[in-house]
């Protein structure tokens, strides 16, 4: 069943490309309808979720058994929420109206392709399969940014994105190979590796492998100072691609940190938990401070992604610091990190879509070009403010549920780092309030006299995100329970 | 086998001859003369082969190289821009580098020859040519055959490249890349 | 003796078929009219099919060492032969239209077959003399093929430059062979294995280094790599595709066989090859970075690919995946290269980077094939190049040369840059006018190559299983 | 059930929003919602209900209505009823009134959640929501660019305090794996100190204690009902409330008591002087709020939470009254400048109401506020003689400024006509609050102590005779002093130089200090980091690429030109150099220039000559490669 | 004896290298290459004579080298002819179309 979620979009992507030119307007409805299938799959998986075990709904097939490579997919408390997030974000990104520059077939085919790939990253339980999807996501995003990005710089940004993350992914590949070479019999199966932990702890090899995969994930996450590809990529990417980039692709980095660095090299992770946590705190503060200095809306949101991913890594580092703090603390930190991944996906996804809406109307991202939009477009302002408040961690919205757990857990593990990291909350509050103020309050500049509020199609994309942000903020039980099965296992060590 | 003093003398003499004539190849003014000095060098080596009990091979070498150098001379007279290859000429580049490389090669290889230990297993008495024949048609059959195929290939290749006229007229006709811009070609 | 000879001849049936077929074909080309010359291609195809069939037939029960220890017709050789045959066949398909205008092109196919034969012989050589002769056959036909466009300045220039490098490399190699012969007392690899154990290290090193130069020329690795960009740019495009690949297959296999018989204590061949690999891949990549001629860029990228391929040699004897990584590399690289050059052939030799701008819109399939081959070169999964690189890096890490793997990684990332310089504009720029194209035979060839690139990655299992336990015989 | 006080305003707010098309309905609904909330709160308080709401995992939201919470849960909607009633009737046709009413209603919901919270997570939720609601309320008039800025300042300042709750929550979780107040008892001393620290920080920020006090000034940017609600029973009250509620456990921490007293006393004194010096009626009231909360903190620190609770209740009643009447003044005269008001003659009835509030503020018996203040004073003396004296001084200050404010704002004066007299509904709201203020006088009756102790579930100390006399004497002194100053016409200026007055009135320069020391550096740091990010970090990657590019260009030249070219290049340069120095020798400076010029030209020729890409360079490279190969194979075995 | 032979071989090889590197004319370069092969030939027969117990492979190696000489010369002439016809060039300096 999970396989369907990967295969069907891929097949339909090919079909989309094959649509005759005169029927090319069918590409969008076809893609949107297809994108509901993964959602259905997620819903069924959620309903069938077994809280008593780890990996489940596993589907496996031989691929290259001679090399220990298999096609294995499955979910657990960590991946299921991320799969759900991915499926949802792709659907709304496709629903969101966007000028496809006269290439609807290619655009929606790329999107469906990327959806299948992204689902594959989170579903795969074989390192090579994981890596295959991982690298293909770069390719898909490269073309999305390059072809549909705006500005002359789009090509450059696309290349920068591709180059930078490819280098990271190749480092990851080295790490994967390192792990592989320790398995006996040779296998890439994640389940088996997590079960047997083949890499001898404490050795130089384990350190090197950890550093290699760490670099790979740190680039993707991104952790300061490996984040420099992110702002240009976001600024030049089209809004739906930014949503996917921030909402889905960044999660791959943090997912990898949990799945591979933490689960496959637990002792090494434990040794490196403190440095990692320090890096995370640096990212938190750095991302927030730099975001505060931005005058460009999209760049601002991009840097807050650096900040939020810092929260996630902080939680993950705390969760992996076996031996420090209580099991409860580590467990709640992990839960918080995963919830943050979901929350950030929804919130930042919404923020990027909204920046797209603003750009579509004003053709600029410069904040000082705007003002007083609250009166002209109450719906736009309302959803934007909701997303901004969720992003700054207001209770009742999704971000708070995540950040609270991360900090509550981390405080028991790295008290000082958590305390320093908390400052990020204040800075993000300041910067988002300033952003809201600049965009929506004050006087409406005369040239935006015919400013339009959100269209129906835009609302179709945004309302589900906003609603989920609220739902997770108020009744997160359904989500936390699923994640908790995983967190407790990890926290136990 | 202990070579006699005569062998020593002959080998040394022909050796010096081979080296000197080889050197003169690049010291002479005319390409034609160069070709003949080259031939002399080959003949000297051929003579050394004969001294070293490889009479058959030595003779082959001398005969072959005489022929080849004659062809080379004719070739130069026929084709090259230096009319008849007889005019004085020096056409060298990167002279210093070349000298360094040449001397360097000599020093390294001579060092290897003098210093390195090679097994001491002299050739037994007997008819070397017979042994060669057996080898040729026995163990190394494949090598021999492969060399034959290579000769065939070079004949085909050399004719394909050098022949001015083929069975279908001008060999150069259409021997180029397909035109990138077909329409232009059609129009013209 | 004769009986043994007969058996030996049967053992190398694919070789006989290729040689015999080539001879028959030259008679055909010599006597038929111009209009019928083109059917030589069909003849070549038939010969290749027969040889391929024979090679496939023997896969079940490989004859192994034959011809009195001068030739190793083992499974690895059969696989190498198959790769060469496929490459040759694809080249034939790409050539038919390309050479149509040439007044004489029957001989071309003969030369192609003989050149393929040279590479095949190279792959099985376990005797220094056989190595020299096979090298000669492969090179000499290559020189002629590269310069086959006699009217084209670029082609003849490529041909003679190729020749000059090859001749010097051969000269050095022959001297080295003589040295090794003197040290070991024989020319077969078996003799080398026994004879070189206590050999004088200095002479051994010099001798091996000189032989290595000869092999490096065929491989296109540093320091005899310069012909690759020239040939890629100047030679007829189908020939360039062929020459960049076929020789590499034979040379890589024979290099592996050769180093296996060298005493590691006497000559530091492993670090030497590692250094050569490192320099080759880095140099090739850096030089490719700013090329504005796509064919020349492919030539330089081929240099860097050679560097990757040498990783397998570094790992031989230390990692059990060395041989299979080599074969994966050869297969993936060969197919990727055929696909890339196939696209160029299909575009009638289009080569300037500028002319690729916006071509994705009028020619989506062609650019798609180009992207697939480029991504495979970079090592993006699940394409063949990825599987190859995965195994190569695994093999060197396994052998204690992790730094080479790191360097490979860095180089792969660099290589993305110059591939993207072609891919990016093709997709991101405004749509260009459609280009005149070659006929459908070229499409078939490049289509097959592209599918193969994907298949080697996605459906790698049959190959992986077949290559898993492969050993290279040395006598 | 226990959630009713939260849900009623929450859902009520939604109903009001739904009714936005009819302003009248919305206005009526808002009052009804508040009344319903009062009822719900009273019901819940009488039941002492508890409840939980599971968030899954290790997170449960726990609420309970116990202790002082029982009073507080009712007090909040009671005052809110008056304030919302005032707001609902105060403005004319104004489309934004609905938004204001909804925000006020939700604000109450958040505050109620804070009040009934029984664990730190729930507390934090309520705490932050109150802050966010205050942002909405303060920035209500968003078209004026200044107001959202003030709202942001207020929110960010209080959010900084919120970090304290985060820390406290994390600490209790780390120590016990639970977030409940009940489990505080089990916390080890080390963690408890951290929790106490976090809570004190949070309370100080929320209750506008030094050094966070100035945010209250920013909060003045909101409409009057907002100020009234913010400064009485909600928002600011949260800080004192949580300390009152958790004092029994927190007092186990050694430094808790002195620090809280210190903060409270400092704020009481400093804030009192700020109020005294203020020229703006609302800001003066804001300053007095800080000062009054300072008094409550003194009581908490001294351990007499009932006194603090009593003071909180009394203050909530009279301060909302004072703010609303200040609003009336603003409406009536269009200004809040104390030197220009004196509306006593124009609005005599309002003046009386304001007077009641002012008397309470001045702590004149027999008002309830006087009773609670004396209890605070008694507690302070119990904590130490200097604390007691300081508190007495703060009391004197409150008498002084209360009297001053009344005289200047609603004292008899020249103003006869006003733009907008208060409406009937407004008067009802004011009257209600005044009545409640007066009603609190029952505390003076015997048993007043007991009522407070029961209501707050804490201790109270009856003042000694000496203390009572002292405080009464101070009240008299204060009133007299104001009367004298009034007579002499110096009540506005207080005889101080304008700059000194402005300095004190501007909260002793704290806002400037905060801007110079915190806000500016942080935003500058952000800008610097951004510049560094763009110019350094991003450039590192770029420069790696650039280096590769450079190398490759060099190599590209090299491979084509041959390694030989380098040798030539170096050699040529050497020869050129030698030649140049010779020329320079021969011909002096001119020659040098000439030499350089010819050198460059020659170098250009040289490089052109070497850039041939000839095959013999390939040969050279091959030979070099051979040598290197031999070397590598020899050296590295 | 073997020393003399190997030194002579080395000398001829060195001269060949010098010629191949220094000459501009293709034909002259080829002469240098032929000299290198000549040296190899001498060395091969030296070893056959002194070090390998008369292994006939040594003689065959000489024949192989002779074949290499002939074949390379033949293809070399053909290429020079072709280049000369297409470019009217017989020295390396004139061939510089193919470069970066």
Report on this structure.
The complex is a heteropentamer of chains A (493), B (188), C (475), D (637) and E (100). Chain A has 493 residues and is mainly α. Chain A contains 19 helices and two strands. Chain A has helices at residues 2-18, 27-47, 79-95, 104-123, 127-148, 153-182, 190-196, 204-220, 230-236, 239-264, 266-292, 297-320, 327-362, 373-376, 378-391, 398-413, 415-440, 456-474, 477-492; strands at residues 56-64, 69-75. In chain A, helix 15 packs parallel to helix 18. Chain A starts with a helix and ends with a helix. Chain B folds into two domains: 1-90; 126-174. Chain B contains seven helices and two strands; from the N terminus they run ααααααββα. A two-stranded antiparallel sheet of chain B has the order 1-2. Chain B starts with a helix and ends with a helix. The model of chain B is unreliable at 183-188 (pLDDT under 50). Chain C has a domain at 272-475. Helix content of chain C is 75%, strand content 1%. The longest helix of chain C is centred in the middle third of the chain and has 32 residues, at 153-184. Chain C is globular and about 65 Å long. Chain C starts with a helix and ends in a 7-residue tail after the last helix. By secondary structure, chain D is an all-alpha fold. Chain D contains 23 helices and two strands. The longest helix of chain D has 52 residues, at 510-561. Chains B and E meet through helix 1, helix 2, helix 3, helix 4 and helix 5 of B and helix 1, helix 2 and helix 3 of E.
Task: For this entry, give a set of tags.
heteropentamer; C: 475 residues; 20 helices; E: 100 residues; mainly alpha; Helix Hairpins; 0% strand
What is the H-and-E element order of chain E? HHH
CATH architecture verdict of chain E: Orthogonal Bundle
Give the spatial strand order of the biggest sheet of chain D: 1-2
Q: How many beta-strand segments of chain D?
A: 2
Counted by DSSP, the helix tally of chain D is: 23
The largest β sheet of chain E comes out as:
none
Strand content of chain E: under 5%
Question: Can I get a quick summary?
Answer:
The complex is a heteropentamer of chains A (493), B (188), C (475), D (637) and E (100). With 493 residues, chain A is mostly helical.
Task: Give a topology summary.
The complex is a heteropentamer of chains A (about 500), B (about 190), C (about 475), D (about 625) and E (about 100).
Chain A: H1 2-18, H2 27-47, E1 56-64, E2 69-75, H3 79-95, H4 104-123, H5 127-148, H6 153-182, H7 190-196, H8 204-220, H9 230-236, H10 239-264, H11 266-292, H12 297-320, H13 327-362, H14 373-376, H15 378-391, H16 398-413, H17 415-440, H18 456-474, H19 477-492
Antiparallel strand pairs in A: 1-2
Chain B: H1 5-25, H2 31-51, H3 55-79, H4 95-115, H5 128-137, H6 141-162, E1 165-166, E2 169-170, H7 182-187
Antiparallel strand pairs in B: 1-2
Helix pairs in contact in B: 1-2, 2-3
Chain C: H1 2-11, H2 13-31, H3 34-37, H4 39-59, E1 64-66, E2 71-73, H5 75-98, H6 106-124, H7 128-146, H8 153-184, H9 189-195, H10 201-219, H11 227-234, H12 237-261, H13 269-288, H14 294-315, H15 322-346, H16 364-378, H17 384-398, H18 402-428, H19 440-458, H20 461-468
Antiparallel strand pairs in C: 1-2
Helix pairs in contact in C: 2-4, 2-6, 4-5, 4-6, 5-6, 5-12, 5-15, 5-19, 6-7, 6-12, 7-8, 7-12, 8-9, 8-10, 8-11, 9-12, 10-12, 11-12, 11-14, 12-14, 12-15, 13-14, 13-18, 14-15, 14-17, 14-18, 15-16, 15-17, 15-19, 15-20, 16-18, 16-19, 17-18, 17-19
């Amino acid at each position: 069943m999970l396989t369907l979620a990967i295969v069907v979009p891929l097949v339909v992507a090919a079909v989309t490309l094959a649509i005759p030119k005169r029927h090319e307007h069918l590409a969008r409805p076809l893609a949107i309808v297809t994108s509901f299938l993964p959602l259905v799959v997620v819903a069924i998986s959620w309903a069938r979720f077994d809280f008593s075990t780890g990996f489940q709904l596993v589907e496996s097939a031989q691929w290259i058994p001679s090399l220990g490579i298999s096609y294995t997919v499955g979910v657990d408390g960590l991946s299921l929420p991320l799969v759900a997030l991915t499926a949802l974000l792709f659907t709304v990104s496709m629903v969101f109206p966007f000028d496809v520059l006269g290439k609807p077939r290619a655009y929606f085919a790329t999107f469906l392709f990327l959806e299948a790939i992204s689902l594959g990253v989170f579903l795969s339980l074989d390192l090579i399969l994981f890596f295959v999807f991982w690298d293909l996501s770069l390719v898909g995003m490269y073309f999305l940014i390059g072809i549909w990005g705006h500005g002359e710089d789009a090509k450059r940004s696309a290349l920068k994105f591709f180059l930078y993350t490819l280098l990271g992914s190749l480092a990851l590949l080295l790490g994967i190979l390192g792990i592989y070479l320790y398995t006996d019999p040779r296998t890439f199966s994640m389940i088996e590796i997590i079960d047997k932990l083949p890499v001898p702890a404490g050795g130089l090899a384990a350190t090197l492998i950890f550093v290699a995969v760490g670099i790979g994930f740190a680039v993707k996450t991104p952790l300061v100072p490996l984040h420099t590809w992110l702002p240009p990529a976001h600024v030049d990417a089209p809004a739906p691609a930014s949503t996917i980039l921030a909402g889905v692709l960044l999660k791959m980095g943090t997912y990898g940190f949990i799945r591979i660095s933490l689960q496959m090299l637990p002792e090494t992770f434990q040794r490196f938990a403190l440095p990692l946590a320090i890096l995370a705190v640096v990212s938190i503060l750095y991302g927030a401070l730099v975001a505060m200095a931005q005058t460009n809306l999209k760049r601002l949101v991009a840097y807050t992604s650096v900040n939020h991913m810092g929260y996630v890594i902080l939680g993950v580092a705390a969760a992996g610091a076996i031996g420090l703090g209580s099991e409860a603390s580590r467990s709640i930190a992990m839960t918080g990190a995963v919830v943050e991944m979901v929350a950030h996906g929804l919130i930042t996804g919404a923020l990027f879509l909204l920046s797209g809406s603003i750009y579509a109307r004003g053709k600029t991202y410069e904040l000082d070009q705007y003002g007083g939009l609250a009166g002209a477009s109450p719906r736009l302002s309302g959803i934007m403010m909701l997303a901004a408040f969720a992003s700054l961690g207001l209770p009742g919205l999704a971000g708070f549920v995540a950040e609270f757990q991360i900090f509550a857990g981390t405080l028991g593990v790295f008290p000082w780092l958590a305390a320093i990291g908390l400052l990020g909350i204040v800075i993000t509050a300041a910067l988002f309030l300033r952003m809201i103020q600049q965009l929506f309050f004050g006087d409406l500049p005369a040239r935006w006299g015919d400013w339009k509020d959100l269209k129906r199609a835009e609302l179709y994309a945004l309302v589900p995100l906003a609603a989920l942000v609220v739902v997770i903020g108020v009744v997160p039980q359904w989500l936390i329970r699923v994640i908790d099965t995983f967190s407790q296992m990890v926290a136990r060590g | 086998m202990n070579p006699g003093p005569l062998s020593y003398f002959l080998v040394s003499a022909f050796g010096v001859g081979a080296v000197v004539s080889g050197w003169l190849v690049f010291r002479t003014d005319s390409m034609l003369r160069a070709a003949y000095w080259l031939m002399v060098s080959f003949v000297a080596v051929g003579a050394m082969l004969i001294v070293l009990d490889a009479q058959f091979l030595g003779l082959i070498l001398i005969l072959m190289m005489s022929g080849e150098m004659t062809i080379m001379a004719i070739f130069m007279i026929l084709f090259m821009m230096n009319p008849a290859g007889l005019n004085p000429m020096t056409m060298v580049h990167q002279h210093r580098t070349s000298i360094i490389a040449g001397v360097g090669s000599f020093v390294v290889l001579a060092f290897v020859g003098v210093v390195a230990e090679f097994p001491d297993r002299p050739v037994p008495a007997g008819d070397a040519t017979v042994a060669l024949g057996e080898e040729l048609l026995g163990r190394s059959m494949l090598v021999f055959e492969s060399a034959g195929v290579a000769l065939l290939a070079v004949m085909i290749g050399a004719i394909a490249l050098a022949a001015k006229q083929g069975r279908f007229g001008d060999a150069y006709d259409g021997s180029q890349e397909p035109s990138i811009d077909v329409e232009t070609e059609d129009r013209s | 003796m004769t009986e043994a000879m007969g058996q030996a001849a049967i053992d190398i049936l694919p070789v006989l078929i290729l040689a015999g077929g080539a001879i028959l074909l030259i008679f055909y080309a010599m006597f038929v009219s111009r209009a019928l010359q083109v059917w030589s291609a069909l003849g070549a195809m038939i010969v290749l099919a027969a040889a391929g069939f024979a090679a496939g037939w023997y896969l079940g029960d490989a004859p192994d060492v034959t011809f009195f220890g001068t030739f190793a017709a083992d499974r690895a050789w059969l696989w190498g032969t198959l790769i060469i045959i496929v490459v040759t066949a694809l080249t034939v398909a790409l050539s038919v239209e390309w050479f149509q205008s040439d007044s004489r092109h029957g001989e071309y196919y003969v030369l192609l077959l003989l050149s393929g034969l040279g590479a095949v012989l190279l792959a099985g050589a376990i005797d220094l003399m056989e190595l020299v002769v096979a090298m000669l056959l492969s090179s000499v036909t290559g020189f002629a093929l590269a310069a086959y466009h006699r009217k084209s300045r670029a082609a003849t220039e490529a041909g003679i430059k190729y020749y000059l490098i090859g001749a010097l490399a051969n000269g050095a190699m022959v001297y080295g062979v003589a040295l090794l012969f003197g040290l070991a007392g024989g020319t077969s690899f078996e003799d080398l294995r026994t004879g070189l154990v206590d050999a004088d290290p200095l002479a051994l090193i010099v001798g091996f280094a000189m032989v290595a130069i000869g092999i490096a020329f065929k491989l296109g690795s540093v320091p005899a790599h310069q012909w690759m960009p020239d040939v890629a740019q100047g030679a007829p495009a189908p020939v360039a595709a062929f020459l960049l690949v076929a020789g590499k297959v034979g040379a890589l296999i024979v290099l592996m066989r050769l180093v296996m018989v060298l005493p590691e204590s006497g000559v530091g061949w492993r670090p030497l090859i590692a250094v050569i690999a490192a320099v080759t891949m880095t140099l090739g990549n850096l030089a490719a970075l700013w090329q504005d001629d796509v064919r020349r860029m492919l030539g330089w990228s081929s240099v860097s690919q050679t560097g990757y391929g040498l990783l397998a040699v570094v790992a031989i004897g230390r990692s059990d995946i060395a041989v299979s990584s080599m074969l994966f590399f050869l297969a993936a690289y060969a197919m990727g290269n055929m696909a890339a050059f196939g696209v160029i052939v299909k575009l009638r030799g289009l080569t300037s980077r500028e002319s690729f701008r916006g071509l994705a819109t009028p020619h989506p399939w062609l650019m798609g094939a180009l992207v697939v081959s480029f991504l495979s070169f970079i090592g993006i999964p699940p394409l063949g190049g990825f599987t190859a690189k995965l195994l190569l890096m695994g093999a060197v890490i396994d052998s204690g040369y992790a730094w080479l793997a790191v360097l490979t990684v860095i180089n792969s990332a660099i290589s993305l840059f110059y591939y993207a310089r072609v891919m990016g504009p093709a997709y991101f720029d405004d749509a260009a006018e459609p280009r005149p194209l070659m006929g459908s035979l070229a499409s078939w060839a490049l289509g097959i190559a592209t599918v193969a690139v994907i298949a080697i990655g996605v459906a790698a299992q049959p190959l992986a299983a077949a290559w898993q336990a492969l050993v290279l015989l040395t006598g | 059930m226990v959630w009713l006080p939260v849900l009623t305003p929450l859902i009520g707010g939604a109903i009001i929003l739904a009714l936005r098309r009819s302003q009248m309905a919305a206005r009526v609904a808002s009052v009804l919602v508040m009344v319903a909330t009062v009822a719900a709160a009273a019901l819940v308080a009488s039941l002492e209900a508890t409840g939980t709401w599971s968030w899954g995992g290790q997170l449960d939201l726990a609420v309970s209505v116990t202790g002082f919470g029982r009073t507080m849960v009712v007090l909040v909607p009671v005052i809110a009823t008056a304030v919302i009633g005032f707001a609902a009737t105060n403005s004319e046709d104004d489309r934004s009134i609905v938004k204001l009413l909804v925000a006020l209603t939700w604000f109450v919901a958040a505050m109620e959640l804070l009040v009934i919270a029984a664990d730190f997570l729930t507390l934090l939720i309520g705490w932050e929501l109150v802050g966010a609601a205050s942002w909405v309320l303060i920035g209500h008039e968003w078209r004026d660019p200044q107001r959202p800025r003030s709202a942001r300042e207020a929110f960010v300042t209080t959010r900084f305090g919120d970090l304290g709750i985060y820390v406290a929550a994390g600490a209790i979780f780390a120590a016990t794996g639970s977030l409940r107040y009940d489990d505080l008892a089990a916390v080890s001393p080390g963690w408890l100190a951290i929790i106490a620290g976090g809570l004190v920080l949070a309370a100080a920020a929320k209750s506008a204690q030094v050094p966070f006090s100035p945010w209250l000034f920013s909060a003045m940017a909101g409409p009057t009902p907002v100020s009234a609600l913010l400064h009485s029973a909600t928002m600011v009250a949260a800080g004192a409330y949580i300390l009152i509620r958790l004092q029994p456990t927190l007092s186990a921490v050694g430094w808790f008591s002195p620090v809280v007293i210190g903060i409270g006393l400092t704020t009481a004194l400093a804030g009192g002087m700020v109020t005294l010096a203020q020229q703006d009626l609302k800001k003066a009231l804001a300053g007095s709020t800080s000062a009054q909360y300072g008094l409550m903190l003194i009581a908490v620190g001294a351990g007499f939470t009932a006194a603090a609770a009593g003071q909180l209740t009394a203050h909530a009643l009279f301060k909302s009254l004072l703010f609303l009447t200040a609003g009336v003044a603003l409406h009536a005269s269009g200004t809040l400048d104390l030197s220009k008001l004196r509306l006593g003659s124009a609005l005599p009835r309002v003046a009386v109401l304001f007077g009641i509030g002012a008397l309470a503020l001045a702590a004149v018996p027999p008002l309830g506020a006087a009773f609670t203040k004396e209890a605070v004073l008694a507690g302070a003396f119990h904590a130490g003689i200097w604390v007691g004296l300081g508190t007495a001084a703060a009391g004197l200050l409150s008498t002084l400024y209360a009297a001053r404010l009344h005289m200047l704002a609603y004292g008899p004066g020249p103003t006869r006509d006003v733009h907008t007299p208060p409406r009937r509904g407004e008067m009802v709201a004011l009257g209600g609050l005044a009545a409640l203020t007066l009603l609190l006088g029952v505390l003076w009756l015997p048993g007043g102590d007991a009522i407070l102790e029961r209501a707050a579930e804490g201790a109270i100390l009856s003042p000694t005779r000496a203390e009572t006399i002292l405080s009464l004497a101070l009240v008299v002194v204060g009133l007299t002093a104001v009367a004298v100053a009034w007579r002499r016409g110096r009540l506005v200026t207080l005889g101080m130089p304008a700059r000194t007055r402005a300095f004190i009135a501007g909260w002793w320069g704290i806002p400037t200090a905060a801007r110079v020391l915190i806000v500016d550096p942080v935003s500058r740091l952000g800008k610097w980091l951004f510049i560094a990010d763009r110019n350094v970090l991003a450039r590192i990657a770029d420069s790696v690429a650039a280096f590769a590019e450079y190398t490759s260009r060099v190599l590209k030249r090299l491979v084509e030109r041959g390694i030989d070219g380098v040798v030539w290049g170096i050699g040529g340069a050497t020869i050129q150099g030698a030649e140049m120095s010779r020329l320079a020798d021969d011909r002096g400076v001119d020659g040098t220039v000439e030499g350089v010029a010819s050198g460059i030209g020659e170098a250009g020729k040289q490089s052109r000559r070497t850039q041939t890409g000839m095959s013999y360079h390939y040969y050279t490279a091959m030979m070099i490669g051979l040598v290197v190969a031999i070397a590598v194979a020899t050296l590295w075995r | 004896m073997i020393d003399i032979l190997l030194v002579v071989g080395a000398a001829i090889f060195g001269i060949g290298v010098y010629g191949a590197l220094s000459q501009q004319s293709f034909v002259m370069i080829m002469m240098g290459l032929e000299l290198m092969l000549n040296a190899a030939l001498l060395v091969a027969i030296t070893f056959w004579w002194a070090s390998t117990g008369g292994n006939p492979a040594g003689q065959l190696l000489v024949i192989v080298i002779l074949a290499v000489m002939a074949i390379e010369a033949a293809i070399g002439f053909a290429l020079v002819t072709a280049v000369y016809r297409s470019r009217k060039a017989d020295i390396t300096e004139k061939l510089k179309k193919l470069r970066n």
